[in-house]
Amino acid sequence: MSMSQLSGRQSLRDIQSNLESQQHKLYHLGAQPIARSTLARINEKQPAELYQSLFYKLLHRCRHQPGQHKFRFKNPLYSLDASAIELSMKLFGWASHREDTCNVKLSVGLNHGTLVPEFVALSEGNENDLIQGRQFRFPKGSIVAFDKGYVDYGWYKSLTDKGVFFVTRNRPNAVYQVISRQEVSFSGGVTSDQVIQLNSAHAQKRGAPRLRRVGYRCSETGKHYAFLTNHFGLSAATIAAIYKDRWQVELFFKAIKQNLKIKNFVGTSRNAVLTQIWIAMITYLLVAFARHSAKSGWTVQRMMRVLQLNLFDRRSLAEILKPDPGRHKKSEPQMRFAL
Length: 339
Hints:
By secondary structure, the chain is of the alpha+beta class. It is built from 13 helices and 10 strands. The model has no long low-confidence stretch (mean pLDDT 84).
């Protein structure tokens, strides 16, 4: 199944045929072809929770890999978001939750330093994003950026009490009182920097803490944004830049949907779909970890294209990612004319 993720196989029969065509190489790799019926049985009966546990076991080994985000502060930076994985209404009736909607939801907490999804959860498509987001245990001192879909004043208090900072968008209809104002330099796009208290009846009941409200106008689009954060030490411009960098998690979703098999599924049951998604996440984790063995400039997409062509070759990862340009150089180019 991991091979099908890297090589872009479309079905169980496609996987079987591809393995059979590589029998002479599978022997040297210590593997053998697998029957389609065996793949189908494992895909249906092997619990998806097994691959979920394997993902987090591999993640534990990858947590200490080197990586650094683009900001000067040392706090770990995460982006939190969820994306729907669309399914066919006819084939995946169990995932239907509206007359015209059939999907499952992938929630991710992406580490900006390593570009590794350190927090992953799969849920029903109609589940609120907050349910899985609140279960992620971000480390103390980290900064988490998320959009307005995660607005929960009680969760704001919980994150603050745990020493976790956050940056999010302020809802236009939010009721608050300005406690104090800071002078700002309008040259950087920042229009306001305030300390506020959310004082609606709902916010007071949920124990909303005092927050910092940063107004920002984008020089490219002219749109005005209002950000909320519980971090009072960073500059207002940095707060705005943190939320802008939340785009990394959108690029992550785009990368896995373009380069991994989470659109076409080889099984139709709930277990088969969740299994394939977890295997895709395991594959992404392995490729992301391998990026640190490659020279700078390698992306996940580029690595997957290279690995696809060398999948059944018995070569080290270093040979594939760092080929010796002079190893196969000939003394006389073949296309040179002797004059």
